[in-house]
Amino acid sequence: MQELARASEPKRPIETKSEAGKSDDLKTMAYYAQRLRAEMPASYFEPARIRLLWFVGYVAVSFGALWLIGNLNSLLPAANWVLTWPLKALLGVVVGICSGALGF
């Protein structure tokens, strides 16, 4: 029965002892971020400039697909809307994937 009573109790935040010896001193996120940064190698925090090439590639593919969506009817004048709308939908998915990849 005591186990059920313990399970229903609200959980308390993690308590740590500070350098001054206070037992109920709660730490901020910045404190933990500084502690983790001190323990990680400095190379983890250097900028990865190679990722700029991914940015350029995604933007180029996205703008190319948007241009094709706008000009597909003039590029394929003999094709009717039955043939062009699936291509436009597929190009729209490509644009969406590129936009989503740029977000990450």
Descriptive notes:
The protein starts with a helix and ends with a helix. It contains 4 helices and no strands. By secondary structure, the protein is mainly α.
Alpha plus pi helix count: 4
Relative helix content: 55-70%
What's the mean pLDDT score? 82
The number of distinct β-strands equals 0
Question: Which structural class is indicated by helix and strand composition?
Answer: mainly alpha
Low-confidence stretches: none
Q: Which range does the strand content fall in?
A: under 5%
What is the CA-atom radius of gyration, in angstroms?
27 Å
The major pleated sheet works out as:
none
The gross shape turns out to be elongated
What is shown here, in short?
Helix content is 63%, strand content 0%. The protein contains 4 helices and no strands.
List keywords for this structure.
104 residues; mainly alpha; elongated
How are the SSEs ordered, and which strands pair?
Layout: H1 2-8, H2 29-39, H3 51-75, H4 81-103
Helix pairs in contact: 3-4
